[in-house]
Structures are given as C-alpha cells and as structure tokens.
Write a structure and sequence with these properties.
alpha/beta
C-alpha cells in the first residue's frame, strides 16, 4: 500500500523546486502530486516517457520522478533529443526490476524507491537528490533567499509554502523585493500599490498583514526603518 498524505507533518520539505512526475496510473499520480505539492514542491506531470522527454526539451526541472512501469520506456533510452538541462531522476520500480534502471536515458544523478513505496521515502530520496542544488528559475520569477515570486501566476512562495496573498499584498511584496535592501517611504509604497497615497494607517495595516504571511519563517524579511519606511532583506543580525 502506498503511504498516505496524512504523514506530511513530519516529512522532509522542498523549497519551491520544479518537479516533473511521470506516472500513468491516475491514483499514484494524484497521490504523488498532492503530497509533494503540500511538501513545498512545484509539480508538473506527464503520463508517458515520450511526453516527459518533450517536456524536458522545452522546460527546465529540478527533479524527475519516473515510474519504470510506463509502457513506452523500452525505446526511450534510444532517443537522442538534445537536453540542455539534465535534472536528477528518482525511479519508482518493483524490487525485481532493479536491473532495469535505464542508465542510457542519460538524465542527471539517479536514485530509486521500490514499489509499493512509502511517501516518506519518496520525499526523503528527493531531498537527498536535490541537496546542494540551486533551484532553477524560470522566466517571470523573482527571488530573494527562499522567497519566490512567480509573476505569470501571480503567486508567492516562501520555503515552498504558498503565501496566498491579496492583489495589494502581492504588489507590495513585489515592490519590496525588486528594491531589496532599499528603504521605501510610505508615500512611495502607497503610490505603487494603489496609484495614490492612502494614508499612514492603511499602509501600516497592509504591511502588518503581509508580515504575518511572509515572516512565519525565520529569518524575518520585512523590516521597519522608523520614521523613514520599510525594506526587505535579511538584517545583519540574522546573517
């Protein structure tokens, strides 16, 4: 039996890395996608080896999770499509198929878990494969440390956790991020967020709400320079 998503509170976490899950069994694909997304990964899926290769030629991924039971893998290793980026791959395989790990596929570093797998083991192996690797950044993404803003999706994440910001909170966070370590006055913030100055109280409340969402993780990123305004970054005391 596959491990359930209820194990997630004690599981290893990702940091917003892009993971391609290549599985054709809908229940397994849903379990992996849901659990890895909750664990802080950004999930993409493919239902065949051929589709996976096509995705890999078009986009960069941090990790591939590949089920060796896919019916079209036999000829996959003979494909010679150029891959400009070769991510590590985590194979899902039966114990009696360990000799078929397809080294000729030629992706990056490899590891495996045997089926039926436990979700805890999948996440632990994924974390090891990704250790020390800098997450890939795609067009339209802005980042500072473990904070990532995906402009096309209007989504913000910290340490892989979705922040669920309102439009005004997202605009404020983006303004602070692109001006990291620069103090922004309340007037500058008001004009950027709303197009005009809304008054000190409205800006203080907006910053307070944003802090509660962003700075649940240490170290805090949003700071006040009393009498001057606000800035985003890691203070010298926290470095």
């Amino acid at each position: 039996m596959y491990g359930s998503a209820s194990e997630k509170p004690s599981l290893p976490r990702g940091a917003g890395q892009h993971v391609l899950i290549v599985v054709d069994a809908p229940d397994v694909a849903e379990l992996l996608s849901t659990t890895m997304e909750l664990a802080g990964y950004r999930i993409h899926t493919a239902e065949s080896g051929t589709e996976a290769v096509a995705r890999l030629t078009e986009q960069r991924f941090d990790l591939v999770v590949l089920d060796l039971a896919l019916p079209d893998l036999e000829g996959l290793g003979r494909e010679r499509r150029p891959l400009t980026h070769r991510p590590p791959v985590l194979f899902l395989t039966r114990y009696d198929s360990l000799g078929e790990l397809l080294p000729e596929v030629g992706l990056g570093e490899q590891d495996y878990v045997t089926k039926p797998f436990r979700i805890a083991e999948v996440l632990a192996r994924a974390q090891v494969l990704l250790r020390g690797r800098k997450p890939v950044r795609r067009d339209g993404e802005l980042s500072y440390r473990d904070l990532v803003l995906d402009d096309p999706a209007c989504q913000a994440l910290r340490a892989g956790r979705a922040l669920n910001l309102t439009p005004a909170e997202y605009r404020l966070l983006r303004y602070l991020l692109v001006n990291a370590h620069k103090v922004l006055s309340k007037e500058q913030i008001g004009r950027y967020v709303w197009g005009d100055f809304h008054g000190d109280n409205a800006i203080e409340q907006l910053v307070s709400r944003l802090r509660r969402k962003v700075d649940r993780e240490a170290p805090p990123l949003i700071h006040t320079r009393r009498g001057f305004g606000y800035w985003l970054g890691v203070s010298s005391e926290d470095r």
